[in-house]
Prior knowledge:
Organism: Coptis chinensis
CATH topology of the largest domain: Jelly Rolls
Helix content: 25-40%
CATH class of the largest domain: Mainly Beta
Strand content: 15-25%
InterPro entries: Oxoglu/Fe-dep_dioxygenase_dom, Pro_4_hyd_alph
Largest sheet: 8 strands, antiparallel
Low-confidence stretches: 1-38
Cofactor: L-ascorbate
GO molecular function: dioxygenase activity; iron ion binding; L-ascorbic acid binding; oxidoreductase activity, acting on paired donors, with incorporation or reduction of molecular oxygen
Domain Fe2OG dioxygenase: 245-344
Oligomer: single chain
Amino acid sequence: MSASLDQRNNTESQQQEKHNGSNGNGVVITTATNNSRSLYSNQRLRLNPNKTHESENYEDLQLEFNSSLYSKLEQYLPPNMLSVNRDAKVQYMREILSRYLPEGERTRVQRHREYRQKIMSSYQRRHKELYTMQADTFFLPTFIHAITENTEESLRSIITEPSPGIYTFKMLQPEFCKLMLEEVLNFEKWVHEAKFKIMRPNTMNRYGAVLDDFGLEAMLDKLMDEFIRPISRVFFAEVGGSTLDSHHGFIVEYGNNRDLELGFHVDDSEVTLNVCLGEQFSGGELFFRGVRCDKHVNTESQREEVLDYSHVPGQAVLHRGRHRHGAKATTSGHRVNLLLWCRSSAFRELRKYQKDFSSWCGECQREKKERQRQSVVATKQELLRREGESMA
């Protein structure tokens, strides 16, 4: 989940200490998983998907993750694993996916499944049309046209980049925003009347709801697959933008009797979509302070990395999850935002083998440039020294 930078560092330090019966991420490994690792521990995922491979169907299995995620991830398996039986594939993919669960999440999977089932069996949807993707009524024509064209030129025609790596564009129809706000209000009313304990979106927001939990998971999955991934493939390729395969979708609320602001943090995502639904409000600007890897997450921001972004209903902002940010106080009114954390299991697996993140971390880039500068200076000095010796 999202966490303040200090909290994140504390959590990571605690995780590094848990070596007994864990994989270094605080996740207990079962005997079956250990057997799978012994067979395939030297196998790495493909960098690009095998689009000609027809994945297995996993819908009949009781899995910790959405069955479609296993089908997508299968296209990244090493060639020699494509011919093994389905159980072996599941075990291998489960071990990979479990490494990236938030702390303690694995032990809560079953309870969360029961929590969702209780909601599904009791909650009466107000606007059923929201639960299936209806692009023509959800999105503005300009947005649909750019995605349909699916070229960098068409995407750039609707996108503004107010600061490097931060992209804004008009996205949602006013009617969609209105219906979604009413659906969230209806869900919150049901929660209150049923005296149902709601799970909040993350550890930092005390208000809001997880949209996936009350039936919007399939719609949001299509939003990621068909609309956000095409954009991310162009603008966030270096952090797995073309391989997004899972999401966490939720609503956050700010204002009177709600959260007022949000502390400085990074998201548990490769790419984050943040769309303002409304309503009437002032303040609440997002502030951005540069992209950082784990090593440099607390380093100083450079002047060119500083941006304050003002929300506009229906307008989206898209950024890397590792782009440090927060929200200033909402000084009046009520602000509601829809967020979609988009993740790539392939990118997270490959990242384990990287030591340099200069393709996206601002501090890694500066360190690399400084090393190059020092190398050039040293080379010049050596050439001058040799030239002086030859003339002596």
